[in-house]
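> call design_seq(struct)
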């Protein structure tokens, strides 16, 4: 049974930093493509950052240079380091897994496993 559990969300002032974590059970972060998505009220869920099995990464334009996705196989965790936070980064952030491992996609339809989300609020 695959389960993704996010943590690390919270409230932060503009310009601050947060580090989100995703701790999966039932899968290895090193074997599959992983990603972070976010959704704010009234908006569609959007892909923020993705990392492929070979460590290729992708970012949506609005976070390039500010966010970094990473993973640690020995801990079986994945992270999203978020720096220079802006109010528009406020959203529920979700961890997702793509079992193909061959894609580095920011498209929601490519991901089949999702966490429950962690809230990030920037003011």
């Amino acid at each position: 049974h695959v389960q993704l559990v996010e943590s690390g969300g919270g409230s932060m002032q503009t310009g601050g930093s947060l580090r989100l974590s995703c701790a999966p059970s039932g899968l290895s972060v090193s074997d599959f493509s992983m990603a972070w998505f976010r959704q704010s009220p009234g908006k569609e869920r959007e892909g923020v950052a993705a990392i492929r099995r070979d460590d290729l990464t992708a970012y949506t334009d609005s976070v390039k240079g500010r966010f970094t996705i990473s993973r640690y196989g020995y801990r079986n965790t994945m992270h999203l380091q978020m720096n220079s936070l802006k109010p528009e980064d406020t959203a529920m952030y979700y961890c997702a897994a793509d079992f193909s491992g061959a894609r580095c996609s920011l498209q929601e339809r490519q991901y089949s496993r999702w966490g429950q989300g962690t809230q990030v609020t920037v003011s």
